[in-house]
Amino acid sequence: VGGLDDILKQIKRRIWTPLAAPPQLLKELGIQPTRGLLLYGKPGCGKTLLASTLGSMLSPFRPITVVNGPEIMDKFVGSSEKNLRELFDNPPDIYDKFKQNCTDAGMVDAMNRAAIHVIVMDEFDAVARSRGGNDGKGGQGDSGVARDSVVNQLLAKMDGVQPLAVPTLVIGLTNKRSLIEPALLRPGRFEVQIEIPLPNSIEQRISILMVHTKHMFAAGRL
């Protein structure tokens, strides 16, 4: 990821360091690992690429889950909430290479339960929109009620009211932070919110260009 060095340092300090610390140390210090990260900014600023890169860095043992917010929403009552629950309740297994390198079934099971699951939600505002919005006719309408129910389900998962199968970090991506339900932005939920700016300096643009042309340099084409 080019041109985002300061952003990466901030994420490492606020997200990666607590996740990498021993659980017992965090417990003694009264620190909870971050459960949610919100990346926001204008289209084309690199949010999706950054989130995917972060997911792979933070979750080396388990595949990350990438989903678009609108894909979760369903026209049938209760289906959207079910789709959301399944994201949290059915994390992918750890990579086969780790299973094959370990002959102890108990160790594999422990690794599977301990490995973090990273969920990347693009167009996050589709599932996390402020509750109580109207339907354009002066009332909330069925669609508004359904959206509120999805937000409530997400809050329950983020708060730990409904226990998670494995440690989970949700990375939400949006172009419109103002649309996000305020309750989701409180501590313990998506408390880490980072704006991803468009590259506005020569150094940032050169950094991005170098990332995209490094294979050409390696092949002797530049």
Automatic annotation (TrEMBL):
Cofactors required: Mg(2+)
The catalysed reaction is: ATP + H2O = ADP + phosphate + H(+)
Give the principal location in a single coarse category: cytoplasm
What terms describe the molecular function in GO for this protein? ATP binding; ATP hydrolysis activity; metal ion binding
| Top-level division of the source organism's lineage | Eukaryota
Its GO biological process terms? Golgi to plasma membrane protein transport; intra-Golgi vesicle-mediated transport; SNARE complex disassembly
What does the UniProt record say this protein does?
Required for vesicle-mediated transport. Catalyzes the fusion of transport vesicles within the Golgi cisternae. Is also required for transport from the endoplasmic reticulum to the Golgi stack. Seems to function as a fusion protein required for the delivery of cargo proteins to all compartments of the Golgi stack independent of vesicle origin.
Q: What is this protein called?
A: Vesicle-fusing ATPase
